[in-house]
Amino acid sequence: MSDRMDAVMVAEGAHSEKAQRRQYKRTPGLMADGRRRSWTAIVTMVLLSVLWTVPTVGLLVASFRTRDDTVASGWWTAVFNPFEAGWTLDNYERVFQGSDLGEGFVNSVVVAIPATVIPILFAAFAAYAFTFMNFRGKDVLFILIVALLVVPIQVAFQPLLNLLGPRGVGISGDYLAVWLLHTGFGMPLAIYTIRNYMTTLPRTVIESAKIDGASHFQTFWRLILPMSVPVLAAFAILQFLWVWNDLLIAKLFLSKNPTVIVELQGLLGAQGQGKELLTAGAFVSMVLPMLVFFTLQRYFVRGLTAGAVKG
Amino acid sequence: MATITFEKAQRWYPGADVPAVPGIDLEIRDGEFMVLVGPSGCGKSTTLRMLAGLEEVNSGKIFIGDRDITNLPPKDRDIAMVFQNYALYPHMTVAENMGFALKMAKIPAAEREKRVQEAAEILGLVEFLDRKPKALSGGQRQRVAMGRAIVRSPQVFCMDEPLSNLDAKMRVQTRTDIAKLQADLGVTTVYVTHDQVEAMTMGDRVAVMKLGELQQVDTPLGLYDRPVNLFVAGFIGSPQMNLLEATAQEGQAKIGDYLVPVDETAAKKMKGNITVGVRPEAWRIVSENEGGLPVRVTVVEELGADAFVYGSSGVAGTPNNIIVRVTGRDKVHKGETIHVTTDPHHVHVFDTATGERLSD
Amino acid sequence: MTVGQRDSGTATPESQPLAGVPRFNPVRFGVGVVGIVAVVWLMLNIFLAFGIRPDLFLDSKLIIGVVAVVVGVGGAVVFFYFLNMIVEGLPDRLSRTVMPYAYILPGLGLVGLMLIYPTIQTIQFSFADKRSERYVGFENYRYIFSNDEFQQSLINNLLWLLIVPAVTVVVGIAVAVLADKLSTRGEKVAKSTIFLPMAISFVGASTIWGTLVYDYSVGEKQTGLLNAVWTTLGGTAQTWLQIPTGRLNSMLLMVILIWLQVGFAMILLSSAIKGVPEDTVEAARIDGASEVQIFARIVIPQIKGTIITVFITVLILVLKVFDIVYVLTNGRFETNVIANLFFNELFANGQAGRASAIVVILLLAITPVLIYQVRHFRAEEQNA
């Protein structure tokens, strides 16, 4: 049939686009894609970028400086005179051996993974029902979810400390308690974002699955979940960052297994801790979320902008 | 035997003031290609979706063969459906897409593969089996959607505007492909479209719908030659049939001074306000003194082999545009006034008030 | 068929005919029930064992961690499997009615338990004494409103609300627009740097800014960046976070939050700006609009929705701002905010009643936003 023609047309399109780009490249003052080079934008963005990275770079530099250097001069001196500065890995060694930051790191992982995956699973099922099923009370329940998006979690603390604490079911301090809390607190946003994304999926796909003989459970697992990967990934990153970086819930409900953030806050609050130790500790606490964030950045942006926020 | 029978099948959306389909009665023969056509909102898709099991049937019944399928879930109806946007599963390859229904039916992998392969050969999709839908052109996607339907070897194909997302050229090509495939496979097919050209070219029979009601079910030529009412007359045919308002007096139909020739049946039945319909190609040009309808030419569309002349007669009741097909070139020019008439057997007479056909 | 009919919300797969024979499948149902009970029982026991019998896991945090992750995530999946089995075992009509509720129940159940029920209780507690044992009427509210610290916190929160969301959105738009004018690679790099702080915790950010930027050292050598710059310019070194004059210290804390949030604002705004159809911009250009006019009259109106979304998201975040203040000043030097005040009343002072009253005020403050959100959502659904 006419596929060959389609293919040719596609190839031609690609070709001419490339040709166009090549043509632009020859013109001075224009960028590769043919737009004018804006010096205002370049200068401003370089300035902003530097301003935005200075604190983080400072942290990294400071964490590798010796104690004496840290007291004697600002971290930037090490940047300007890298060869005269005293570099060391001691700070990291001390962080892992002298404090509980290492164990805190493990705790954080144990808290963060289930507290990321479980809410997504629960929310995806709920979002599926809200998107593709009809039931009594659907609208009211979803409005409730929307309303709960903005309710501050502080309202829940005192009652939940009673409920989960020794006066209640007695799981406060265990992982289970924080998983449940993070799942509950993250649920409204999770359901909301995932549903918004699912409503953008073509309804005929569901109908087609129906005709193909798939049950709701099969449709969910085999079709809707794979098709929702962008938003699931985006929410997973958001939730992971939120759980990992959380101070309040961990501090209050996970006393037996303090997370790395709680440890860092303790370190910061303790008098007489050297800068070099704090900076190394802070860096340890940031390394995993940054890694996650940057490797999955693409998904994050795509998912967040696709369905999460409507116009 | 996969005949399809609708018995007063009704669909009433909850909360709607009127039913989308008040109750349709339709019989489709085994192996027939039936096209449901009508303007948007006429209930054609709803009817198809009732058959597919995607819409609830509020009352009445639907049969495939002797089986009452009114309350069966879609998967138990032995049907397959092709959607307007194809509804391909984006994360599955072409082969997986085509095999999904078989997988759901727990058909063993070897058998599944064989049937997918067969379907792919029929449709020329073999080399694309490992591709994802994203990597296919519109026409290829359309064929995958077809393939997904045929691997199941169902008793009935349901097609909901399957060509609407193709460009004009692909549409014409695929139109023929589908019609041929259907003829080869001999599977009873219900095809929904809003495009009357598609309906005329593809259907064994065509059902014209309006506001949820069937207007006429007939072969394409039957619809063209004997439209049962004004709606069908206006809907089928391109360019449209000329519909002119006339008055009937003592067996004669008059538009201004022009005496429209009508057949005997119509002549007996008509009275008062009537509408006469004449297809553009049924006019012939006559000289002024032969007493035709005067048409002042405003536009001439030369198509090469023939030409369409658009003009107005200025007589009360006639539309602004009277369309006349003329054969041969350079016969008529803009600004001229021509006179046209026709023969009794080419004139469709309708009662203006009821829209009913009065001619034979 | 017509768009109207399909979108009436009734043409969903749910409005379908029932499955063939409406039959109860006791085996499926039974297996489902047994399965779900077993899963829940097993999960609870394993989780409890972490605390009670760590020796079962060789007293290793790592092993406990791995088991916890596997059981937590796997258990949730198996839970849904059996739940679905129960529902599919039901007679058909019932199954179809129950199915949606089975899907939403686990999620909404937790929301109810973790958010709705506690909210109601907190409102109750706000009228009770410090141990939530005896009702005291409006005593707590009377106390907090006559309390200087609370008023201070209210003013501070208001200041945060006025400054942070607005600045974040403006900087976000500026960055989005300027980055859009860079080359593809330049844009990517620039955005990444602005992005970076998004991954950093409030505590981490506070550590960074507190020890590296706002730090004050006794003696001549200033190792904090701000003081170094300040003294170079001829000023005297300051303990910046202790200067309440003109709320300077609060502003410095706000800078940290803005630094963290601009990235988020930028992502959404940038994709909104890129989503503005190029032809509307070109049409305006042909109509003779200047670039500034194009931006103000063509681009901004088309991204208004995103601007509002970003603004509200940051607004909600700011209302609850806690970590930064808690970690860096703990509310001293006139920097207190409501969330920090709440925390201290509840845990340092053990005043459950007063703390609850504070948080109810916070809830009331958020209500207008909540109403706006719901309205906005409804309007959007209607348009959809």
Outline the structure in words.
The complex is a heterotrimer of chains A (311), B (360) and C (384). In chain A, 75% of the residues lie in helices and 0% in strands. The model of chain A is unreliable at 1-25 (pLDDT under 50). Chain A has 16 helices and no strands. Chain B is elongated, with a radius of gyration of 24 Å. In chain B, helix 2 (94-104) packs across helix 3 and helix 3 packs across helix 4. The two termini of chain B are 35 Å apart. Chain C is mainly α. Chain C folds into 2 domains: 17-125, no CATH class; 141-383, Orthogonal Bundle (MetI-like fold). Chain C contains 16 helices and no strands. Residues 1-21 of chain C have low confidence and may be disordered. Chains in contact: A-B, A-C, B-C. At the A-B interface, helix 1, helix 10 and helix 11 of A face strand 6, helix 2, helix 4 and helix 5 of B.
Short descriptors:
heterotrimer, B: 360 residues, alpha+beta, six-stranded mixed beta sheet, C: 384 residues, mainly alpha, MetI-like fold, 2 domains
Which helices and strands, and how do they pair?
The complex is a heterotrimer of chains A (311), B (360) and C (384).
Chain A: H1 3-26, H2 39-63, H3 67-72, H4 75-80, H5 90-98, H6 101-132, H7 138-148, H8 157-164, H9 175-198, H10 203-211, H11 216-227, H12 229-245, H13 248-253, H14 260-269, H15 275-295, H16 297-308
Chain B: E1 4-11, E2 21-28, E3 33-37, H1 44-52, E4 59-64, E5 67-68, E6 79-82, H2 94-104, H3 109-123, H4 138-150, E7 156-160, H5 168-185, E8 188-193, H6 196-202, E9 205-210, E10 213-218, H7 220-225, H8 230-235, E11 242-249, E12 252-255, E13 258-260, H9 264-269, E14 272-278, E15 284-286, E16 293-302, E17 306-312, E18 322-327, E19 337-341, E20 347-351
Parallel strand pairs in B: 3-8, 3-9, 6-7, 7-8
Antiparallel strand pairs in B: 1-2, 1-4, 4-5, 9-10, 11-12, 11-14, 12-13, 14-20, 15-19, 16-17, 16-19, 17-18
Chain C: H1 3-6, H2 26-52, H3 61-89, H4 92-125, H5 139-146, H6 148-180, H7 184-195, H8 202-213, H9 225-232, H10 248-275, H11 278-286, H12 291-302, H13 304-319, H14 323-328, H15 338-348, H16 352-383
Tally of contiguous helical segments of chain C? 16
Number of strands of chain A: 0
The name CATH uses for the topology of the largest domain in chain A is MetI-like fold
Biggest sheet features of chain C: none
Q: Share of helix among residues of chain C?
A: over 70%
Q: What helical percentage do the residues of chain A reach?
A: over 70%
Structural Rg of chain C = 28 Å
